[in-house]
Amino acid sequence: MNNQRIAEVFDDIAGLLEIKGEKVFTVRAYQRAARTISRLPTELETMLSDGEDLRQIPGIGKAISDKIGELVDTNRMRFYDNLKSEFPDGMLDLLSVPGLGPKTISRVWKELGVTSVVELEQAASDGRLASLPRLGQKTADNILRSIQFARTQDQRTPIADALPAAERLVAALLERNTAILALAPAGSLRRFEETIGDLDLVCATHDAESVLADFVALPGVAEVLGHGGTKASVLLDDGLQVDFRAVPPRQYGSLIQYFTGSKQHNILLREHANRLGLSLNEYGISDAKTGELEEFDDEESLYRRLGLQYVPPELRMGESEVVLAREGAIPALVQVGDLRGDLHVHTDWSDGRDPIEVMVVAARECGHEYVAITDHSAGLGVANGLSPGRLASHNARLKEVERDAGGIAVLRGSEVDIRADGSMDYPDCALAELDWVVASVHSAMNQQPDVMTERIVSAIRNPHVTAIGHLTTRLIGRRQPIEADFDTIFRAAADTGTVLEINASLERLDLKDVHVRRARELGVTFVIDSDAHTAEHLDNLRFGAAVARRGWCRAEDVLNTLPAYELLALLRLPKPERAGALRARR
DNA sequence: GCCGTTTTCGGCCCGACTGTTTTCAGTCG
């Protein structure tokens, strides 16, 4: 049983216990366990068979550890089965109706016999819901509306859609209103989560009234859900909800900290504040005894006041970051400005849009010291992949372009298919002519985990393969990742000096954050690549840097923070020596 | 159910909003 499924079971348990009226702290413990499990980089099944003690994992104690063991061993859990048998099927769906919580669910079940969303809709329409004590017509109407809304809109928005939307809104509002002193996305977008629920924008201004008026009148706003003195909520044409909050600049630090979350991070921060005799809320920090409020115009001073290192938004997941910040152990994370080149770029020789010379000039204008042109190998027929003959011409053309390019190093590269049997799509003699080889899976993505693992490890062991591209092949919200033993792959990569790509394309973000963090622990070095198919895509590197940061990477963990001469020298080494050099760097 | 800078027992974040109520429970983020 995989972690995703185990996490779902604990989420179900939390929901059922909530409806049952169990203590909220018990419910929270199960919810926390579910969240932790869903973000584990290693399968619990593997950890157990390796003899690891699951109670080492924060939030998992004896009771939950035992339940996981039972689930992995027998595929069942008596506690879960018994709990489920106390309720009709469909009850858990009721928890997903906004505005309807466990207390109300329990009442409509016991008093009206409602056990599903359809029955709830019926009861809300025919007046039975409104007739219950402490419920009324308004509540019934609200529930009816949210059931209908949830039917059209229950998906989170991929960051690939949310980020451009947010950037458009920010730019449009800045252009319209000169009273804005600061304006930024907060919430899951600022933390750079892969998917976003609703968009949060926070603003510093002395004139909230005019800013809010301009905000609700922006183009693309389909409906104004609320509009008060300091906050407003709107629905955009595409269904994305945007919450906007404006405060005077002296409170901006507290506001953006609060709205950046995550919720769990804020809980840990407040628990920490409590231990210091302080109380933290979105307006500032108050002394528990005197009640006196201290305000913060920036986040750095807020964290400092709590005796903590600054925690970058990408790390605010409510895991170990608050403890580490107290110990001063948050590393200096890699920044997009540290990147000196891009090593995965396509041109119109395969499935890119722009000619080689356009991509090279564009890369130079990004400030890059080097760029690898990595058009597809022949196996990828749909992508107009290069035959070995065309590859030789490609190499020659790259040398010509480099001569005219004004100082940027142009690496002869290729994105080579890893075939289903683990062999490479070019013979070794062709690979040996290249400076940079990205090996990627583009076919047979549904292989059994052990077959897929062996296939990728074969590519890693090839002496000419420098990097593995978009390891999991997932497309966010559209295609599931491959199944494989990632620890084995990470160990092989670290061992052989094969770097793993963090593909910065917003549709991919592959490796993903938790894999980066785990691979880093196992000694892997990464390369952050745009996978650009047009010149505009070169700017994507910033997204890859954000994923690397979410994976706790420092500049030393990333190959393309090296200056050109060091990178080229490293690539001239045979792989075993390169592996040693990479280890020495970290 | 978890966990330890005050705790192996007794805590566990904080405030806003809504709708139903005359003082607050439920839900949400």
Shape: globular
Number of self-contained structural domains: 4
Average pLDDT value?
A: 93
Going by CATH, the architecture of the largest domain would be Alpha-Beta Barrel
CATH topology of the largest domain: TIM Barrel
The count of strands amounts to: 17
Distance between the termini: 35 Å
Q: Radius of gyration in whole Å, from Cα?
A: 27 Å
Describe, in plain words, how this protein is organized in 3D.
The chain is an alpha/beta fold and 586 residues long. It has four domains: 3-153, Orthogonal Bundle (DNA polymerase, domain 1), CATH 1.10.150.110; 157-247, Beta Polymerase, domain 2; 257-326, Beta Polymerase, domain 3 (2-Layer Sandwich); 336-585, Alpha-Beta Barrel (TIM Barrel), CATH 3.20.20. The strands form four sheets. A seven-stranded parallel beta sheet has the order 11-12-13-14-15-16-17. It has a five-stranded mixed beta sheet with strand order 2-4-7-6-5, with helices on both faces. A three-stranded antiparallel beta sheet has the order 8-9-10. The protein is globular. It binds one DNA strand of 29 nucleotides through residues 23-30, 32-33, 58-64, 98-104, 133-136, 138-139, 142, 187, 197, 243, 258-259, 261, 263, 266-271, 273-276, 279-283, 326.
